[in-house]
Structure formats: structure tokens, C-alpha cells
Design brief:
- The protein is of the alpha/beta class and 371 residues long.
- The protein folds into two domains: 3-178, 3-Layer(aba) Sandwich (Rossmann fold); 191-369, Vaccinia Virus protein VP39 (Rossmann fold, 3-Layer(aba) Sandwich).
- Helices cover 29% and strands 33% of the residues.
- The protein contains eleven helices and 20 strands.
- It has helices spanning 3-7, 31-39, 56-63, 75-86, 119-132, 149-159, 218-225, 246-251, 263-276, 315-327, 344-352; strands at 10-14, 17-21, 45-49, 66-72, 91-95, 106-112, 133-144, 163-169, 172-178, 191-197, 200-206, 234-238, 255-260, 281-284, 297-302, 307-308, 311-312, 328-338, 356-360, 364-369.
- Helix 5 (119-132) links the parallel strand 6 and strand 7.
- The longest helix has 14 residues, at 119-132.
- The model has no long low-confidence stretch (mean pLDDT 97).
- The structure holds S-adenosyl-L-homocysteine (SAH).
- Residues 24, 76, 211-212, 217, 220, 239-241, 244-245, 259-262, 265, 285-287, 303, 305, 316 line the site of S-adenosyl-L-homocysteine (SAH).
């Protein structure tokens, strides 16, 4: 796949209006989204979509006459949603974390649980939804039976009010809750933890929903153990998370740029760099879209994602390989770490004409050199 193909927006006519999709966004046919879109009754008034993804649920609320605010924090989804909003009146897209939604401002809140991002993320989503609802407002909650829907519905009831499950299809569930109690403002604190990497004791910060939020991922550790000295080099960190790879490199003297599509992760990285007094450019970016043309690097490092919205999808990892190749100077080196079952070396060899396995075990560390 070429990078242009990854970045392309595709327009899809739906009975509710045109919807734009792109790679890297949760599938439109995700059962939780489709069931919620088919069930939700929004009606006129202000509605909030707190996990819009492809935007299917936002469109359903729009079609029912609501004016919709879609709060999304992932860049890939934002790019598609912004295109959708240009062609559907009444849809307002915000690049924002759920807990930044205004209080008591919405008659309807729609939420597809992001269970794949962990309990802290779900709790933050639910607290944000509860506070954003006006008294008497309705919360429409969707999730998967196997992804803990019942337990999360219990949490939601305590925060919002009485609930009724109104739709089931396969493992997907939708419940409606009516807000009958005051909400306590969400208290969102980053989790802080320390790790020793490349001979330094480092402190990291991770907001809810961020990858590997309580310890540095063992795969990322392995990449750092198999990496040359980067002092004085320009390093690009693709899918940087809270900066597990790039903070130690910045402190050893590399000049680092972080690309990260999750706002929660990008803000976490910013906190870690600021607390360490380290210089680093953190860009909220879908793969390399936020990087100015003509910026080139000596080294690219990555521990790429292989899920999108809980489904195994390799589009983003494939785009990372293409972006690494296009952003390296001749002679530049791309270090990637992955699970052995993922055959990234095929793409790396195709792109770079070479690939070496620097380490194999529970994970593999691969290196390609740009001609
Ligand atoms: N480098 C970090 C995080 C690795 S996990 C570490 O080693 O801990 C992969 C990261 O890629 C996640 O933070 C995820 O949010 C990010 N990501 C997923 N899709 C992306 C995309 N389209 N563009 C940029 N980053 C993306």
C-alpha cells in the first residue's frame, strides 16, 4: 500500500447523508456502532457523541434532528469526521478528550465503550458522559458482552441513573440510562511511573487510554536495547505513545520528533518531556500527516499498533513502514519491534530492499537501511 492510499478519504453515501472514511479508523460495520446507530433516538436538541470513530452514530442523531457535537481524540478519525461535517449541517467536530466536554450541556449523550483501551479509559468516558448530560437527559451506551458490557453498565448506572437494555444483536448491546443524579466532575490524573532505560532513571506520565500505561512495554525495551547511540542524530518516533522510546533518546542527545494520533498519548508525552526538561517536538498526527514536507531523519523508531478499535488491522503498521522509508535520509535506519507472528519484514524488504533481524525471542527487533 502506498502512503497516499493510506491517507485517502473515501466518500460513502448512507441513507443519513454522506460519510467519509479512511484507513486507520474503526470499521463502520463494527457491531457496537451499527447497533447503536440503528437504535438511538436523539430528537431535536443538543447531542454529544463521545466516541464517534467513523461517525455512524453522529449521523444517525443528525438525521433524527439533533445538533451533534462529536468529541474525538484520534487523528485518523478526526480527519474523516471533519470531511463528513463539511457535508452534513449541524455536525460539529472537536479534537478533544472526552473529559473536556462541557457540563450539563446535552440532552442526549451517545457512547460506544472503548473497552479495548482499558478500565481507566472506560471510567473516564463514563464520568465525562454523566457530567455532560443535563438533568433528565438520556445516555445511550453501547458495548460488547465479551468486552465487559454488563460490568460497565453497572458503573454507568451508579454515575447516571436507572438503565434499560434496549437492543441486542450477537454480542453487541445497547442500553439507555436516564440522568437522575448530580455528577462529580471527572478527576483525571495521569498515572506516573519510573523506568530505567539506556542507563537513565526516567519518569513517565500516562493519561487514561494510553498504550502500556503502567510500565514500559517489554517490546519497546527490547528495541532500545538493540539501538545504536543516537546522540547528535535526528530521530523520528512513529506512534510515540507517552514517549517510552523517544524520551531516553532525547536525554542522550538526539533531536526527537514524536508522531502520535491519540491526543491522550500526545499530551502524556508532552508532560514527560516537560517534567524531564527534555526538548522534543510532539505532533498530533495520523501517521506522518502533521510532519512538514522536507523533514528528514537519520533514525526512525517504532513499536507499531496492530489494532484499530479492538480489531486486528495492519493498515497503520504498513503505513508506518512506508512513512519511515519516505522520511529517512539516504543511509538512514529504521528500527521496528513487533510480535514474531506479524510479518512486517515482508513490507520492510519490499520498501527498503533489505531487512535484518537484530533480536528474536518473545519479540523481534528488525532493522532496514535506506539506500
Ligand atoms: N512508542 C510507544 C507506543 C507504542 S503503541 C511505546 O513504545 O510505548 C503504538 C502507538 O501508535 C499508540 O500510542 C497508538 O496511539 C499510536 N497510533 C495508532 N494509530 C496511529 C496513527 N494512525 N498515527 C500515529 N500513531 C498511531
Amino acid at each position: 500500500m502506498e502512503l497516499a492510499e493510506y491517507h485517502a478519504l473515501k466518500k460513502l453515501p448512507t441513507p443519513q447523508g454522506p460519510l467519509y472514511l479512511k484507513r486507520g479508523v474503526v470499521r463502520m460495520d463494527d457491531p457496537n456502532y451499527s447497533l447503536l446507530a440503528g437504535t438511538i433516538e436523539a430528537g431535536p436538541g443538543a447531542a454529544l457523541d463521545l466516541n464517534p470513530g467513523s461517525g455512524l452514530v453522529s449521523l444517525a442523531m443528525l438525521a433524527a434532528g439533533a445538533s451533534v457535537s462529536a468529541y474525538e481524540e484520534r487523528r485518523a478519525a478526526l480527519r474523516a469526521l471533519e470531511a463528513t461535517a463539511r457535508e452534513n449541517q449541524g455536525l460539529q467536530v472537536e479534537a478533544a478528550l472526552p473529559w473536556r466536554a462541557p457540563r450539563s450541556a446535552f440532552k442526549t449523550v451517545a457512547l460506544v465503550l472503548g473497552a479495548e483501551r482499558g478500565n481507566d479509559w472506560v471510567r473516564a468516558q463514563l464520568e465525562a458522559a454523566a457530567c455532560a448530560l443535563e438533568p433528565g437527559g438520556s445516555m445511550w451506551l453501547a458495548g460488547g458482552k465479551k468486552q465487559g458490557f454488563e460490568r460497565y453498565l453497572n458503573w454507568a448506572q451508579k454515575l447516571v441513573g436507572p438503565a434499560e437494555v434496549v437492543a441486542r444483536a450477537g454480542g453487541a448491546r445497547v442500553a439507555v440510562l436516564e440522568k437522575d443524579r448530580p455528577c462529580a466532575a471527572p478527576k483525571i490524573e495521569p498515572q506516573a511511573f519510573s523506568a530505567r532505560l539506556r542507563g537513565r532513571e526516567l519518569r513517565f506520565y500516562a493519561l487514561p487510554g494510553v498504550f502500556s500505561a503502567d510500565e514500559v512495554d517489554p517490546a519497546s525495551r527490547l528495541l532500545l536495547e538493540n539501538l545504536e547511540s543516537t546522540s547528535g542524530l535526528r530521530v523520528l518516533d512513529l506512534g510515540a505513545g507517552y514517549g517510552a522510546l523517544s524520551l531516553p533518546l532525547a536525554l542522550e542527545g538526539a533531536s526527537v520528533t514524536l508522531l502520535e494520533q491519540s491526543l491522550a498519548a500526545a499530551e502524556s508525552a508532552r508532560m514527560g518531556f516537560d517534567a524531564a526538561g527534555a526538548a522534543g517536538e510532539v505532533l498530533h498526527s495520523d501517521v506522518d500527516e502533521a510532519l512538514p514536507e522536507g523533514s528528514f531523519f537519520d533514525i526512525v523508531v517504532s513499536n507499531p499498533p496492530f489494532h484499530v478499535g479492538g480489531h486486528v488491522v495492519l493498515d497503520v503498521a504498513e503505513a508506518f513502514v512506508a512513512a519511515a522509508h519516505s522520511r529517512l535520509r539516504p543511509g538512514g535506519r529504521f528500527y521496528l519491534v513487533a510480535n514474531p507472528f506479524l510479518k512486517y519484514e515482508v513490507w520492510m524488504r519490499e520498501r527498503f530492499g533489505n531487512v535484518r533481524e537484530l533480536y528474536t525471542g518473545q519479540y523481534k527487533v528488525l532493522l532496514s537501511v535506506k539506500a
